[in-house]
Amino acid sequence: DVVPSPESTDRGALTAFSGGVDSAFTVVRNTTDAAEPGYRRTRLAAGLMVHGFDIPLDRAAEFEGAWARSKACLEAFGLEALRLRTNLREVSHELDGRWEEETHGPWLAAALACFEPAFDATLIPSTYAYPCLKLPWSSNPITDPLLGSDVVPCRHDGAAFNKLTKVAALAPHAVVREQLRVCWVGPDLDRNCGACFKCMATQACFWLAGVESLP
């Protein structure tokens, strides 16, 4: 009946960070006043990028390029940039696990848990907003909070905001405009192709937020 709230040690929280709109919004929302704080605004201390999730292990050079972009973004907001390499996604393929619907949420929580003793909480940035949740979806506000521990909770962050609202909060920040990486279908995974649906939809959101073009 009562959710225990462990005493904070003021170590701050660790968030998963891919370099896209959702994870960049979690950073901006919790380190600046760019968006309404909403429920459980958290003091962030670091962001974690995982090699082997969005970028396969055998494409190391592209991960290094994407990592440089993410590191620049995280450090611009005063956060420590952490990285981890794992074959969890390859294992999930062998087990016939569906990345979107079944595995990416628990695998993110598992990666964050490797650093759990150093932080007060872990955060998984939201994909969908509360009014338009997609279920089943492996990371969501219902199941993500079940993936923490009694001492270090895992929180699903940002579901009170949709993509357009998130981009509006990101738009004023030059480092985000320069380093944002949303594309996962282009030939080079460390940059945006500018032509796929996700790239074009993100650009449209920036247009509506008053940004005529991105670098």
Q: What's the tally of helices?
A: 7
In percent terms, what proportion of residues is strand? 5-15%
Encode the helix/strand succession as letters: EHEHEHHEEHHH
Mean pLDDT: 93
What is the number of beta strands? 5
The profile of the biggest β sheet is: 5 strands, parallel
Unreliable segments of 5+ consecutive residues:
none
Quick one: overall form? globular
Radius of gyration, in Å, reads 16 Å
Class derived from helix and strand content? alpha/beta
End-to-end Cα distance, whole Å, is: 50 Å
The residue fraction in helices comes out at 25-40%
Strand order in space, largest sheet: 3-2-1-4-5
Oligomer: single chain
Characterization of this structure:
The protein has helices spanning 21-31, 60-76, 88-94, 99-113, 163-170, 174-179, 197-208; strands at residues 13-16, 44-51, 80-85, 121-125, 154-157. With 215 residues, it is α/β, with parallel strands linked by helices. It has a 5-stranded parallel β-sheet, with helices on both faces. α1 (21-31) links the parallel β1 and β2 (44-51). α1 packs across α5, α3 (88-94) packs antiparallel against α4 and α5 (163-170) crosses α7 (197-208). The relative contact order is 0.18.
